[in-house]
Specification:
4 helices; two-stranded antiparallel ribbon; Porin; mainly beta; about 50% strand; elongated; about 425 residues
Length: about 425
């Protein structure tokens, strides 16, 4: 449970990579396994690495800002800007062909905290100050996954791996009282401002890596949805009475080795956010005749969807996304290796879904990364990486509140890790 981490969106809310070696190559490692966190991407990679244990900590800084309103624009920067994300793994060779290992890693999660509640100030309803007072606006979500792995080297050129996925996640929300009118339970007791809630689940990932030419290696990996228990304390918020499964994903890639000291890799990933109703179902839409805002124009249910928390309840309006990654690795000498990478991906939502995503502003879609490894001894290795997500914006001339809005975010992350080689 300690691996579950607080953070914000990268490729949607999945991490760009897992561990400093992977992150140094922008996560382009499905055919180029780097260390014992490989099962976070491709469990077949356990056969191709040496016996080792890896641990890393990432200092992650997402800078997010939301704006809503007409003449008096309500603009606020999320105050929580730094998060620590751990990752790690272990690999042991059982015999000449069979390897055992475990990868422990965290997805990006979602965390935003606005001391000024932009929903309150934009709705302009309620008390004598002319606006509601539902308090600090915040969501706090973390996901951790444990992947025990068996990997079998069928031939010297081909490996297959399988990893059960054990997931744990937590969630807390505050300041969503403006949406109580969208709940089946008029009291909205399981919508917002309750304690942290935990959910647990399982899934599976399988992968293959094959060297089809001395200079060409291919890799394929697929992960099922991780089926999680419900967030019972947020059954009035998430569709399917608090359901929040971790989406399935598929990755394929190629690693080229034009020289023994040089690797160029390219990965393609598809993340199926659209298969999880609480993530994918459309959020509120603007209705000029809605009674929601005390007789004034305001948000309404989109066509075909029912209230928050229902089996087909409204959600965040995220779509499936494609992620493309390029990574480069150069071994300067036996002690020093340099890495670089670049990735780009679709945004999971558009301007028409901006309102709910004030608390989940996954708008970044371009990342640049650098990394290095230094081995001071035969058995030890230090690994470093840096990644930058370029500032991006999503805007709408008419959010579900009937006023313009915009979201923006950029990110920086620095990761340090140490590896023990047996």
């Amino acid at each position: 449970m300690g691996i579950a981490s607080q953070a914000s969106a990268t490729t949607g809310y999945f991490a760009l990579g897992y561990g400093p070696k992977s992150n140094g190559m922008a996560g382009a490692v499905v055919a180029a396994p780097q260390d014992a966190t490989t099962s976070a991407v491709n469990p077949a990679g356990m056969s191709l690495i040496e016996e080792r244990a890896d641990f890393s900590l990432m200092l992650f800084s997402p800078i997010r800002e939301a704006a809503l309103g007409n003449n008096l624009e309500v603009r606020k920067k999320s105050k929580r800007d730094f998060f620590v994300i751990p990752n790690g793994g272990f690999k042991y060779q059982l015999n000449d062909q069979l390897s055992w290992g475990i990868s422990v890693y965290a997805n990006g999660g979602m965390n935003t905290t606005y001391t000024r509640n932009v929903f309150d100030e934009t709705m302009g309803q309620g008390n004598k100050t002319g606006m509601a007072n539902t308090g600090t606006l915040q969501i706090d979500m973390g996901q951790g996954i444990i992947a025990p792995t068996l990997s079998y080297q069928i031939t010297p050129e081909h490996s297959f791996g399988i990893a059960p996925l054990i997931g744990v996640q937590y969630f807390k929300a505050k300041g969503l009282g403006n949406f109580i009118g969208f709940t089946e339970n008029s009291a909205g007791t399981d919508l917002t401002d309750t304690a942290y809630d935990f959910a647990y689940g399982t899934g599976i990932r399988a992968g293959w890596i094959g060297q089809i030419h001395p200079m060409v290696t291919l890799g394929v990996s697929a992960s099922s949805k991780i089926y999680m228990t419900e967030f019972h304390q947020y059954s009035d918020l998430f569709a399917e009475n608090g359901g929040f499964d971790i989406p399935a994903n598929f990755t394929t890639g190629i690693a080229l080795h034009p020289r023994s000291d040089l690797t160029l890799s390219f990965d393609y990933e598809r993340i199926f956010y659209g298969d999880v109703k609480s993530i994918a179902n459309k959020g509120p839409v603007f209705n000029p005749t809605s009674p929601f805002a005390r007789g004034g124009p305001g948000p309404d249910l989109p066509a075909g969807y029912t209230t928050l928390g229902a089996d087909n309840g409204i959600g965040f309006g995220w779509d499936d996304i494609d992620v493309f990654r390029i990574g480069l690795q150069y071994e300067v000498n036996q002690d020093l290796t340099l890495r670089a990478g670049y990735s780009w991906n679709d945004r999971p939502f558009g301007g028409d879904q901006l309102l709910f995503n004030v608390i989940a502003p996954a708008v970044t879609n371009k990342h640049m990364t650098f990394g290095l490894s230094y081995s001071p001894s035969e058995f030890g290795e230090w690994n470093l990486s840096y990644q930058h997500a370029f500032k991006e914006h999503v805007s709408s001339e008419q959010t579900a509140f009937g006023v313009p809005g915009s979201l923006s975010m950029y990110q920086n992350a620095f990761e340090i890790g140490y590896s023990w080689k047996f």
